[in-house]
Amino acid sequence: MSYKHQVAEKIAATLASMGVDTLTKEAVYGMLETPPNPAMGDVAFPCFQLAKALRKAPPMIAAELAGQLSGAPLRESQAVGPYVNLFLDQENVAEQVIGTILTQGSTYGNSHVGQGRKVPIDLSSPNIAKPFSMGHLRSTVIGNAIANIMEKQGYEPVRINHLGDWGTQFGKLIVAYRLWGDETKVKAEPIKELLSLYVRFHEEVENDSTLEDQGREWFKKLEDGDEEAQHLWKWFRDESLKEFMKIYDLMNVAFDSTHGEAFYNDKMDRVVTLLEEKGLLTESDGAMVVNLDEYNMPPCLIKKSDGATLYATRDLAAALFRHESYDFAKALYVVGNEQRLHFQQLYKVLEKMGYAWSANMHHIPFGMMLKDGKKMSTRKGKVVLLEEVLAQAISDVQKVIEEKNPTLSNKEEVARQVGVGAVIFHDLKNFRLNDVNFSWEEMLTFEGETGPYVQYAHARACSLLRRGGYQPATTVNLASGALDSKEAWAVITLLNAFPEVIERAADNFDPSQIGKYVIDLAQTFNKFYANVRILAEEEDVKASRLQLVAAVVAVLKEGLRLLGLAAPEEM
Ligand code: ARG
């Protein structure tokens, strides 16, 4: 139990003895404040809300309460106006916090709120035959971090890569390949070549409008199982997946399912039948739609006039499938903000179908990755390829290592961990809905608020432990005064806050809470390291300080892991 919880429990018990039985310890916990400056105490409790129940002025209540609050983890209580300002017995708190972390290790901050219930998370989901864009990078890193965070909260995440492997664009691609394609070229550089075929298709359409119709026809053939169409489609898919796998391997992301859109091809008739039975399908210009006028939304397109199904149809089938397969606590979709309407429509259609569980589905939108302030477009071939970004980041790190630490063992792996870490962290340190401007410089600086900065703080702390001959232990007996500095206390309060930060990140599906937290912890630790002697101290003082360092190592490592970053011990 964290010290704040202990304080809340004490206050709640004291209040009960004063005759207030309406405030639970959880409610008290929620009322606790952090005083604006440490001279006013470590925690403050405002008494305004009690005036009615106790029929007394808040300052009187504060005085009475302060007089009765004592004992660990408190050192002193003072009434100041309507507030009770509480000073902690910092040594006692330090012992508790460090002891908990050293005992629990990587499980520190785990919670059981998820009760093992499943949470399918739709993430990454790139489109076959197109490059893995920076938008898909965002979905991958945000989704993977959220999956880790949900797992830490006691849920069982199911990472689903809902590949964009179905739809009219495959008809177009087949047409383009049959007209201008070259097998050897596709084999050599599948995505590049398929993309250029796709781009060419859109160029040639300007002069030859029959191409669009041919594309539609070929997609229809594909849906109907035509052999040539199927064969080409499968080949495009396999080749693309091979390339995507390289990226996932580099980033160390794995999926529990790669059921893409095509997987639902034979599950869509059922959706259409259900919609019909429930009387929800209406005709509009030959197409079948679900009307959403009552929600002020455009209709949801289910079937085109030529009978072809759509993105939304496949998402409906996927939603039913996920509900049936996972009986989920929540179902998450980590998809760009530009698809907001699509998901609103999807949920409304499911609601109209009578599925109350649709209320547990959440679209987790994120902002765009812009280049020079503009949107990147695949059609015009204006994209930054993620592979290039990762390769560049890794080679930049390699150079730094060669310069600063050429004898480092495991150089290649560390360069990968740090280079990829830079790219991931660049994304996760800001709230996901903010647009991100793509900039090589920003993505590849290793100073300031970056992943490599945090990784470096962790590696420095590990090196301290090695040099100090730290022996792992779970019982903490601090030498008196060893952690009696504002620098040490700042580290301890941050360490104590980790479980709350995870909870907030989970409740808001917001990994940037953890991104900001690890930066804060790294900076605060660096200040401690710069101002407090560690190795050149008496044995017992040194041992106490090293225990704090070991706790920092554990929390930084776990924080980085949640974000999807490795924490090398040397770099
Ligand atoms: N492939 C889509 C795209 O790149 C994203 C799919 C998101 N997931 C979903 N279930 N709709 O835009």
TrEMBL record:
The lineage of its organism: Bacteria, Bacillati, Bacillota, Bacilli, Bacillales. It is an enzyme of class 6 (ligase). Residues 454-571 form the DALR anticodon binding domain. It comes from Brevibacillus antibioticus. It catalyses: tRNA(Arg) + L-arginine + ATP = L-arginyl-tRNA(Arg) + AMP + diphosphate. This is Arginine--tRNA ligase. Monomer. Residues 1-88 form the Arginyl tRNA synthetase N-terminal domain. A motif ('HIGH' region) lies at residues 126-136. GO terms for biological process: arginyl-tRNA aminoacylation. CDD domains: Anticodon_Ia_Arg (cd07956), ArgRS_core (cd00671).
